[in-house]
Amino acid sequence: MSAEGSRNGGAPLVEVEHLKLYFPIKKGVLIDRTIGYVHAVDDVTITLNEGETLGIVGESGSGKSTLARCIVRLLTPTEGTLRYRGQDITHLGRRDLEPLRREAQIVFQDPVSSLNPRKRVGQIVGVPMRLHGIEKDTIGPRVRELLARVGLNPEHVNRFPHEFSGGQRQRIGVARALAVDPRLIVLDEPVSALDVSIQAQVINLLDDLQDDFGLSYFFIAHDLSVVRHVSDRIAVMYLGKVVELSPAKELYDKPIHPYTEALLAAIPIPDPDENRARERVVLSGEPPNPIDPPSGCRFHTRCPHATEICAQVEPPLAEYANGHVAACHHPLSVSEQEIAAATYSSLSPRSAGRLMPSGEEAPVGSGESDANAAKADTRVAVAESEHAGPEQTG
Fold first, then answer.
1. Extents of the domains making up the chain
2. 127 burial class (0-12, 13-18, 19+ CB within 10 angstroms)?
3. What is the average pLDDT score of the chain?
4. Tens digit of pLDDT for each residue in 314-346?
5. CA 386 to chain centre
């Protein structure tokens, strides 16, 4: 599926442009002083099309959940632009956000903490309808209808959350999200706290609901084996940045970024012999501190293919065939011809250089300012020697 435009040929449902969210670090007794920032989300540009599921994966601390909360405006971005159906919602106030609250919902990771333990199921699912002005007489029947739709007994409306299993509580969370007929649902690791058998049931439920209600999903997870079965496209995040974006099947067949390769290598294979025979990809060290992220490519401190240029120049997102984009100076799984044909992607962060994997400088394209191009110090002399040395993995 194309990264641009929706399934019906219109504009994307959600547009995220150069989004940043920095959390200030305060210090002081009488007067708080800002001594630094946590770079939780750092210049992310993605789109979501009507009826599409975009999977977002990465390690803990990569910025997935923070990005999810920005998209539904539970958090206000530090910089960048958010658009929903073409409307700029980046800095809308509480009253102006009311229409978005009905159109965009979120299902949280932990079904225990996300449900009020003092409220009965009927109240939990019914409150969103009351807040959005749905007639009181229709709320009760609608709640029972939704519970039945997510696989629960409608007679359970008078039970409390603690009387249900983990999978049932997550179904209650899904029913609450559906209560106001949304078009967009952000699923923040909706199955990571569930048993494997229950995960499959919830994923199948979400798939059926998408077809029945015409929903669009952001599916946040750290498990690529789960995301594979639900996503049309997958974005891989590392330390606040998108390092690879691709149609789901192609990402698994042809990972370009070394970090994606490492994530895929961590997926267990059911066949013991095949699992033992495959090549191990083990990343050394821990993710860097998001308060002081490393220069250049943020993954270079753990990357087995890193060279000097990786520490000096942040790679742009290079676009390969089939809308597959990746930010790496030494890409994997691509031939020299594919590297030469790669183009500079408009999804690239503004902080990135313009040095392509081929060692060539990307020209300044239409809509890109000379000022932004001048800010990218690509150090061509170093780059040429670096790219002349290591062989590309074909």
1. 14-238, 256-388
2. middle
3. 86
4. 999 999 999 999 999 999 999 999 999 999 999
5. 32
**CATH superfamily for domain 14-238:** P-loop containing nucleotide triphosphate hydrolases (3.40.50.300)
Helix axes 196-213, 166-178, angle to 10 degrees: 10
Q: What is the pLDDT of residues 29-74, one digit of tens each?
A: 778 888 999 999 999 999 999 999 999 999 888 999 999 999 999 9
Distance from the first to the final alpha carbon of the chain: 25
Contact at 8 Å (CB) between 316 and 365? no
Q: Give burial (CB, 10 Å; 0-12/13-18/19+) of 320.
A: buried
**For residue 319, what are the contacts with CB-CB under 8 A and spacing of at least 6?**
325, 342, 343, 344, 345
Q: Which residue has the tokens 């998108």?
A: 242
As a 3-state breakdown, the chain gives helix, strand, coil percent values, each rounded to 5, of: 35, 20, 45
**Residues recorded for the chain:** 394
| pTM confidence score | 0.86
Cβ burial 350-384 (10 Å sphere, 16+ → b, else e): bebbbbbbbbbbbeeeeebeeeebeebebeeeebe
Q: Which comes out higher in pLDDT, residue 244 or 391? A: 244
pLDDT at residue 384 is higher than 50: no
55 CB-near residues (< 8 Å, 6+ apart): 219, 220, 221, 227, 230, 231, 233, 234, 235, 248
* Other beta carbons within 10 Å of 117: 9
287-293 LR contacts (CB < 8 Å, sep 24+): 287/59, 287/61, 287/62, 287/238, 287/239, 288/239, 290/38, 290/39, 290/40, 290/61, 290/239, 290/240, 291/25, 291/36, 291/37, 291/38, 291/39, 292/36, 293/39, 293/42, 293/239, 293/240
